[in-house]
Design a protein that fits this description.
Helix content is 29%, strand content 22%. It has a six-stranded antiparallel β-sheet with strand order 2-1-3-4-5-6. With 188 residues, it is of the alpha+beta class. Helix 3 runs parallel beside helix 5. The N and C termini lie far apart (59 Å).
Length: 188
């Protein structure tokens, strides 16, 4: 059986559910299982049911002062990483509250945390270099496996950050906006 992206997300969501609520954000590299087993043959039996698919490898914990979004904006993944996944807990508000949210980040956070219609959620989102995405969302108020929502694009902002972190930096020597050096410049 290959481990598809939806299966990886569901596995991560179940793992996060076991840990309970009020957990810090977590980040995972998604690597081809066959590549992982080739590098670490001792894992072959443990990962036998994931051959041909992806395996989530947890990264170092985020520092207390770092937000997941900040980390993703500066993340650079090695070529062997086929995708990335994140687990984060957030407070969401109903759409009708959007116009009332203060622009100051600290005031917005306080407003969200005190809003009577707020909903605490745990998000597991993943994206691959090939452009595939998948999410699972669990509501704290409906904290059971049967109530977990899943789909390709449930949290588009987070998925965009995950996908952007997978884009390889272009080689600065291959900048198409830079003119090619003339023969005179290369002979100097």
């Amino acid at each position: 059986m290959t481990t598809t992206l939806p299966a990886v997300v569901r596995e991560l969501e179940a793992h996060a559910a076991e840990a309970g609520w009020d957990q810090p954000a977590r980040l995972f590299a998604l690597v081809p299982t066959d590549d992982l087993v080739a590098a670490e043959p001792g894992l072959a039996d443990l990962l036998a049911d994931k051959r041909g698919g992806l395996t989530a490898v947890e990264q170092e914990p985020l520092k207390a002062e770092q937000s997941l979004e900040e980390v993703l904006l500066s993340a650079v993944w090695p070529v062997g990483v086929a995708g990335v996944a994140a687990i984060a807990e957030r407070v969401v508000l109903p759409p009708q509250a959007d116009d009332e949210v203060p622009t100051d980040p600290a005031a917005a956070s306080a407003y969200a945390n005190e809003h009577p219609d707020r909903e605490e959620v745990r998000i597991v989102a993943a994206a691959t270099r090939a452009g595939e995405t998948f999410c699972a969302v669990r509501l704290r108020s409906h904290d059971d496996d049967a109530s977990v929502m899943a789909g390709d694009n449930l949290v588009p902002g987070l998925l965009d950050l995950l996908q952007a972190s997978l884009v390889e930096d272009p080689d600065p020597t291959d900048d198409p906006d830079q003119p090619e050096p003339s023969d005179e410049e290369t002979q100097q």
